[in-house]
Amino acid sequence: MQVSTRGREPAFAALLLGMLVAQLEGTVVVAALPAIGADLGQPEAAPGVFTVSLLAVTVSTPVHGAMGDRYGRRAMFVAALLLFTAGSLASAFAPTFPALLAARAVQGIGGGGLVVTAISAIGELFDAHERIGRQIWSTAVFGVSALAGPPLGGMVAAAAGWRWVFALPLPLCAAALALGWRAVPGQRGRRSGAFDVAGATLVALGGAALVTLGSSDALGSNPLWSPLLAGAVVVCAVAFVRVERRAAHPLVPPALFAVGELARAVAVTALSGVALFGTFAFVPLALATGLGAGTALTGALLLALTGGQLAASTAFSVLARRRRRLAPWGRLSLALGIAGLGLLAALPRLAAEPAPLRYAVAVAGLASAGAALGLGMAAYTLLGMGLAPVESMGAAMGTLMFARQLGGSLGAAGFGWVLLAAPDPATGLTAVLAVAAAVTAVAFVVAPRGSTVPSAGA
Membrane-spanning residues where (predicted)? Predict the structure, then answer.
């Protein structure tokens, strides 16, 4: 993409705003779920408002990435922004719970497109050294959404009603559209020919089955539905590989995996998703078991997880300008993940130990796991940008994000079964987190480390 230096700044601002509204959408709604369930008469189904958006984001991400390669980033950015805005408005005015779920699906499809399009466009707009310098802004976007989102959503829902929570992103959407309409590069994509409808359908079906398996306790533990969903995932995965090998214009070009280090980066991202994202629901249970922590204390302790993530991302943004090889940063994130998950695995077995020791283990484990999340996401995203062929940047970034999201769903489902099979909760939680640490160790072994991996200044 040929864009003037001056023209890149408003484009970058528009892309950041797009990522902000997409990430903020996932955090502001959480605090409003009880109010939504009570008002629409579905209190037990309220978590579905979050789950349906997660599902839509996951299955739409690789499709948006491939379509960006085909139709250009500006077209996909504007389309995703309009979808997100339409979904937000429909959510705010939803008269029934099913209508709200449908609106949230539209919002999630738009949100998935905003994130993958922004990351792909940044990969094309800036060289490797500039991406490192601008990583601090991506960290800031995450920090604002993670820290400000839940309390902001709770305050708005309490003061004005839950419907206004969905109106919160609209001014930011308008600003992003005003900037992005002209600033985001509009060069037509480099891929042509018939779109891979069969591949996109298999991604949607398999991804939906896996996300449902990982996010629904009722279905994930059901003796009928869990094997059916697992079987659907396997069938779709096998069929997808066969379709992509034969497709004239595949959704995920097999040539991407001919780049050995890129294939390793995708594998590590998937394994990290299993270990770090897949254990999100189990970490609060480990805190409650090992510390006897209630809801309020657990929430306060989890700030160490977010703090570790922000601290590591910020340190990386500063230090990587001088230490530009990305592969060692990625391996450092995995080492931190092994340490953090190992400490958290020990926590449920320390209930009889002195309180200061237990709290020190908990905080150190949470901070290390958070640092692994922040550092790993930054390092492997930038690594993928540097390794991906320019004509398939969107497909590569979509695949990387899809691998992380599906890894998290697979981990949540698998770890749930481990917990159900354990003789008692403490043993089960220790087993879950120990297995997660072992998965991270496998990721460390297969992580990119060769001389072909680009540095930040390549």
Answer: 12-33, 45-63, 75-94, 106-126, 138-158, 164-181, 193-212, 224-241, 262-287, 299-320, 332-351, 357-383, 395-420, 426-447
Task: Kindly list the averaged pLDDT for each block of 10 residues, start to end, along the chain of length 458.
Answer: 68 94 86 84 78 86 90 93 96 92 93 93 86 83 81 87 92 94 75 79 88 71 82 92 88 83 92 91 88 79 89 88 87 96 94 90 95 92 87 89 88 85 90 96 90 52
Length of the chain in terms of residues written:
458
- List beta partners, residue 455: 325
Q: How many Cβ atoms sit within 10 Å of the Cβ of residue 132? A: 24
pLDDT of residue 323: 83
- Smallest CA-to-CA distance from 77 within 187, 1, 184 is with 184
Query: 3-state class of 212 per DSSP?
Result: helix
Instruction: Convert the pLDDT of each residue in 211-265 to its tens digit.
Output: 877 766 677 667 788 888 889 989 999 999 999 888 888 888 888 888 788 899 9
Q: Is the dihedral of CA 320, 322, 324, 330 positive or negative?
A: negative
Structure tokens at 151: 């309390």
> For the chain, how long is the longest CA-to-CA vector?
66
**Amino acid making up residue 300:** A
Distance CA(273)–CA(414), nearest Å, equals 12
Contact 241, 76 (CB under 8 A): no
Q: Under DSSP, is residue 194 helix (H, G, I), strand (E, B) or coil?
A: coil
> For residues 233, 238, 242 and 248, what is the CA-based torsion angle, rounded to 10 degrees?
20
Nearest of 63, 114, 111, 74 to residue 91 by alpha carbon: 111
Sequence-ordered list of residues with C-beta below 8 angstroms from that of 275, at least 6 positions apart, any chain: 337, 341, 411, 436, 437, 439, 440, 443
Q: What is the pLDDT of residue 451?
A: 46
- The token pair at 39 is 């008002």
Q: Are 271 and 443 in contact (CB under 8 A)?
A: yes
Residues 6+ apart with CB under 8 A from 159: none
